[in-house]
Sequence to fold (404 residues):
Amino acid sequence: MGRQTGKEAGGQPRETESGWRRVGRTLLVAGIVGSLAACALLPEPTPHPERVGGGTQVPADDGPLPPAIPRGKSLWLPVRWADLPGWGQDNLYDAWNAWLKGCERPNAAGMPGQLGLCTEVRQLSIASLAEQQAWVQRRFQPYRVAETDGSPPAGLLTGYYEPVLDASRQPSATYRVPLYAPPPGLSGQRWYSRQEIDTLPAAQVALRGRALAWLADPIDALVLQIQGSGRINITEPDGQRRQVRLAFAGHNGHPYQSVGRWLLDQGAIREGSWEAIRAWARANPARVNDLLWRNPRTVFFREEVLSELDARFGPKGAQGVALTPGRSIAVDPQSIPYGTPVWLATPGPTLTEQKLVLAQDTGSAIVGAVRADLFTGWGEWHEPAYLTAAALKQPLQLWVLWPR
Fold:
């Protein structure tokens, strides 16, 4: 999705997990509808799910294990299904939403036989949980993700979300902070820095007429750029309000620098949370630009219409498919290819999870063998999606599920 970093922290309520499960069935229906067009392109007839999945019969998990697989920055070590903590206790219906979405772009995934597997995933979308679990065990081999030398890594799980913000189509005394579409000629080369965009006439001329919307708070604009995408409730010139999505469309080529770390290093705040950063900004309005300019990177956006179906899912990740709350993760693609089903286990103060997720995105801070960013959904800064994403920083174990 082009996000700048995995996180810059805050607190979190435990009810988020149950919220994801409550919307699971609704999202599953939406995912099935969104996949119908892709299904129509497949030449195979659609058999009954039991004939595809083979019912609930599971092969014995006691045969010889395959060899380890070197994979870029990681080494995949084969394990038994019994070695996956919590396997068999997850509600796979929730994960099927993300899997169906991933199957809209199977050619973007690095998994062998993805087209055939996606045919079966679609056909099993209405199967029982037992049938889905049995199919996964027959068709996939689990591998524990380790460092390239085979040693257990110090895995890290963080979170990200899609902000929901109020905005105006035109600037005013309240809405003063612009969000821009890419300037003409932006081609991956280093462009003006954030400070130069704010101060140099040449940069402002290049961006004239490129403002998509205006926000009231520069910290909100910074959060939106760090997350890489967001929804805005925008007021049009005629007074009408509607919700649209601003999706990542590029950046100015400068490295991301954490404004929270800058404040921490000065002793200006005691914790690197957005609440602390906002409080500092309110107390030091004359120094807000100093804070913002510490991060030279600026992100540019494109506006997308939000249909009723699109609004049920997140923005598109690096795989090119819409993200599913609680089931899509950002990974290092040199360790885990996009589209790969992954078993995730994490114990911590924010979330305790053992569940199936899909590798569908990446981020500049998501680097290494066992490193993931969990997409938590969308909402305003005080709502569960934000609170979970901001607080999430805890140990992680990953197992990739790879076709047999």
Summary: Residues 5-50 have pLDDT under 50 and may be disordered.
